[in-house]
């Protein structure tokens, strides 16, 4: 063994010698976080034509809406559902429950999880409707609404020059971030967009929804990956299988080997500050892998006041925009829409397994990467 | 997964990334042999790690998880660019030898080792980097690459033999190569 170790050491020294003259002083973390930020919030702009249409709507609105100019935008007349149709897509957002506008912000970027939207709004909408149908086949009272994020660059009520100056002071990467943290002086605008999801400055994330049932409201998310690309497949199995849904934590096997199968891992301690986990991993045995996560929290309703990018979990004061309730702490109170047994029932249902087949096909049909995620977004209006 | 990290989780990830990014870049450099590509590879790996941070932070060894993500990013990139890189480095290999011959034995071996590493298949190169740079055991290397320990041993043996054939006496004989080719139960 001694000889082997010394040989290993020599090989290690040889490899270390290769690195002798190579210095890595670049900090890639800001770009990583900016890339994640884009992936989370800003990847929903459709083809350039739609983006132009949205910008055209914004440009029209500029002429009739007060511009912030001095940092605080004035109140504006709420955008009506009719206005939402002006993107050129004949979809009734208010009635369908699916997406008003899925607009791809970066036409040349591939996202490892979830993928970009397709080139056809109808295709994206069909996927959303299929998910809703599968859900309602098991829980007829459930409602699914897309989750929105505000894109400040598309907001005609904001002085874009001032916004640029503000962002450039935050960090170089923030200047190109489509969904930056709201400046404190734009708190009113932040609140307006949060309460008006139909506003064109709000864009939807097709992989994230708010699930609403009589029991509660929570954010749910789904993501697709080729099974081979997953770092580990261990989540598909329960290390210690348990079917006791009454326990606060556990794991339940899902599906069967001839269809979508995997495991639902849960840790549903609802006490304040406790970690919450409700995550299902499913594979179909043909290279497709889907994860579905429920957060236990209604992140769409709970709002933090604009704080210029700072966040102190001990003093953060959350306000529920729907009920007016306030809460101080790192995360708002949990209000799960479904429990572990119900999620397992949903994932095991024939309707949901059919949806997963459709979802995998949908994901595979999405465009792939052509460019760099650090490039300047082409749609950002020039002031 | 997209869209589910809390601010605390993002801060947790950012702290990990800041501390470990330099080491990941060095490993990436040994994998790809180019500084800019190593930085890009690290950035891609960290972005993937960020997206899977829920899963990663639950892992027994987050560093090992990060290595798996980096190796996956490397192998994925290699599959796409294999033909182009091979043609490019066939030329660089010859040029590297000519240039290195004027820089003394140390520099010669460094450049040659880098060029020789590039002559290895991507997976074999990953085995060498994980085993001898990261000092991972055979079992840990197998877990990172998603293959069997026996496959790691055979890949390692072939890779070291090829390195020795390419580099000649300057590389020397590695006893570990002999030992790993034997059916010993231990990996390190």
Q: What's the end-to-end separation of chain A, in Å?
A: 67 Å
The largest inter-chain interface, given as chain pair and residues per side, is:
A-B, 55 and 57 residues
Q: Uncertain spans of chain B, ≥5 residues at pLDDT below 50? A: 83-108, 173-188
Give the percentage of residues in beta strands of chain A. Answer: 15-25%
Percent in helix of chain A: 25-40%
- What gross morphology of chain A would you assign? globular
Count the E strands of chain A.
Answer: 10
Structural class of chain A: alpha+beta
Q: Report the average pLDDT across residues of chain A.
A: 67
Number of helices of chain B: 9
The number of strands of chain B is 0
In short:
The complex is a heterodimer of chains A (about 375) and B (about 190). Chain A contains ten helices and ten strands.
Tell me what you see in this structure.
The complex is a heterodimer of chains A (383) and B (188). Chain A is built from ten helices and ten strands. Chain A is an alpha+beta fold. Chain A starts with a helix and ends in a 19-residue tail after the last helix. The radius of gyration of chain B is 18 Å and the shape is globular. Chains A and B meet through helix 1, helix 2, strand 2 and strand 3 of A and helix 1, helix 2, helix 3, helix 4 and helix 5 of B.
């Amino acid at each position: 063994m001694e000889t082997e170790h010394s040989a290993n050491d020599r090989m290690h020294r040889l490899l270390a010698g290769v690195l002798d003259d190579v210095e890595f002083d670049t900090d890639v973390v800001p770009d990583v976080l900016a890339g994640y930020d884009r992936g989370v919030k800003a990847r929903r702009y459709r083809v350039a034509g739609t983006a132009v249409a949205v910008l055209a709507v914004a440009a029209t609105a500029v002429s009739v809406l007060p511009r912030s100019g001095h940092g605080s935008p004035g109140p504006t007349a709420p955008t009506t559902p009719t206005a939402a149709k002006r993107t050129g897509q004949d979809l009734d957002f208010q009635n369908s429950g699916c997406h008003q506008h899925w607009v791809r912000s970066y036409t040349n970027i591939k996202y490892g999880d979830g993928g970009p939207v397709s080139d056809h709004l109808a295709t994206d909408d069909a996927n959303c409707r299929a998910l809703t149908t599968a859900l309602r086949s098991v829980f007829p009272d459930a409602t699914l609404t897309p989750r929105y994020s505000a894109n400040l660059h598309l907001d005609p009520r904001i002085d874009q020059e001032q916004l640029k100056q503000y962002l450039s002071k935050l960090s170089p990467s923030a200047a190109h971030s489509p969904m930056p943290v709201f400046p404190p002086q734009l708190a009113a605008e932040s609140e307006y967009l949060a309460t008006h999801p139909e506003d064109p400055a709000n864009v939807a994330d097709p992989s994230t929804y708010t699930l609403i049932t009589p029991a509660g409201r929570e954010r749910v998310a789904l993501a697709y990956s080729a099974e081979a690309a997953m770092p580990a497949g261990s989540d598909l199995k329960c290390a210690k299988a348990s079917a006791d849904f009454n326990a606060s934590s556990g794991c339940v096997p899902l599906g069967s080997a001839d269809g979508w199968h995997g495991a639902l891992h849960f840790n549903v301690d609802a006490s304040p500050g406790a970690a919450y986990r409700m995550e299902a991993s499913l594979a179909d045995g043909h290279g497709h892998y889907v994860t579905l996560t429920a957060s236990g929290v209604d992140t769409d309703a709970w709002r933090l006041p604009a704080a210029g990018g700072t966040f102190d979990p001990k003093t953060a004061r959350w306000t529920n925009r729907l009920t007016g309730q306030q809460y101080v702490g790192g995360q708002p109170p949990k209000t799960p829409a479904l429990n572990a047994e119900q999620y397992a029932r949903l994932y095991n249902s024939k309707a949901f397994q059919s949806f997963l087949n459709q979802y995998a096909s949908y994901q595979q049909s999405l465009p792939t990467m052509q460019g760099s995620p650090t490039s300047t977004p082409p749609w950002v209006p020039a002031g | 997964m997209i869209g589910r990290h809390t601010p605390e989780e993002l801060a947790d990830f950012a702290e990990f990334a800041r501390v470990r990014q330099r080491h990941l870049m060095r490993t990436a450099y040994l994998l790809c042999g180019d500084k800019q590509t190593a930085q890009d590879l690290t950035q891609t790996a960290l972005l993937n790690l960020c997206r899977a941070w829920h899963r990663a932070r639950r892992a027994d060894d987050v560093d090992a998880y990060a290595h798996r993500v980096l190796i996956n990013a490397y192998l994925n990139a290699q599959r796409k660019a294999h033909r182009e890189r091979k043609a490019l480095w066939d030329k660089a290999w010859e040029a590297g030898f000519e240039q290195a011959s004027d820089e003394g034995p140390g520099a010669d071996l460094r450049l040659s080792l880098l060029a020789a590493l590039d002559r290895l298949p991507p997976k074999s190169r990953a085995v060498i980097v994980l085993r001898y740079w990261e000092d991972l055991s055979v079992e840990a290397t197998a877990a990172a690459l998603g293959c069997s320990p026996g496959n790691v041993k055979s890949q390692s043996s072939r890779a070291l033999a090829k390195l020795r054939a390419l580099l000649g006496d300057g590389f020397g004989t590695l006893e570990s190569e002999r030992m790993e080719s034997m059916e010993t139960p231990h990996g390190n």
